[in-house]
Design goal:
There is one protein chain. With 207 residues, the chain is an all-beta fold. The chain is 2% helix and 61% strand. The chain is built from one helix and 13 strands. Strands 1, 2, 3, 4, 5, 6, 7, 8, 9, 10 and 13 form an eleven-stranded antiparallel sheet that branches. A two-stranded antiparallel ribbon has the order 11-12. β9 and β10 form a beta hairpin. The two termini are 41 Å apart.
Length: 207
């Protein structure tokens, strides 16, 4: 059961005072296997949702909260991890994949902005408190309308980031990161493209 949030009801523009609470029956079966430095999890799930609260674009140019009468969402999530430490060294790695099917039971079509396929990965090496890492994100084709128009769909993309962190003093950690290493041209929302290759720096203060 989920009652509409404050923003769902009152945010302007887009809040909707006529929203009904969202109700659902959810089933999940998580399976996990571990062997020394390795672990693997497999989680199938199923959700039967009534009056699902969704923010959708309107002809006026802004997004608004609506109820979708009946939605069934099901799929599987997997995660593989590896972790090993020796002396002052440690290595961590993970690889995940999710398949999601969220179907509007009235139209029999996938919900907008819900990709069928998503994947992510990470490799991290640490020596004492010095760290270097690599992150990956893959996203499948994503429909941006309720009728699954191919011409309006967001195309699949693969993003790779890399960064380092090291202690400057006992209480200060500095870092640098390269985002979107391959300068992939992609969008997560229709007509709003994300930055190509870009750089960032971080400063962490620990007290």
């Amino acid at each position: 059961f989920r009652y509409p949030s404050f923003n769902d009801l009152y945010f302007q523009p887009g809040g909707n005072l006529d929203l009904q609470p969202e109700t659902s029956m959810q089933y999940e079966w998580k399976n996990e296997w571990k062997n020394r430095n390795f672990s693997f999890s497999l989680t199938p799930y199923f959700m039967d949702i009534s009056d699902m609260i969704r923010w959708l674009p309107t002809s006026e140019g802004y997004w608004k909260a609506f109820n979708t009468n009946k939605v069934q969402s099901y799929g599987v999530e997997t995660l593989f991890t590896f972790q090993k430490k020796w002396n002052d060294h440690s290595v961590k790695a993970s690889l995940g994949y999710a398949y999601t099917k969220s179907i509007n039971q009235e139209t029999r079509m996938q919900l907008m902005y819900v990709p069928y396929h998503k994947g992510n990965g990470m490799v991290e090496y640490q020596y004492k408190k010095n760290k270097i890492y690599l992150q990956a994100l893959a996203n499948g084709k994503t429909y941006t309308d309720s009728m699954q128009k191919e011409m309006d769909a967001l195309q699949p993309y693969f993003i790779l980031n890399s960064g380092i962190e090291f202690p400057w003093t006992a209480h200060v950690v500095v870092g640098a990161k390269v985002n979107n290493i391959f300068s992939e041209v992609y969008a997560t929302t229709a007509y709003y493209y994300m930055p190509t290759r870009n750089f960032s720096a971080t400063l962490k203060l620990n007290f």
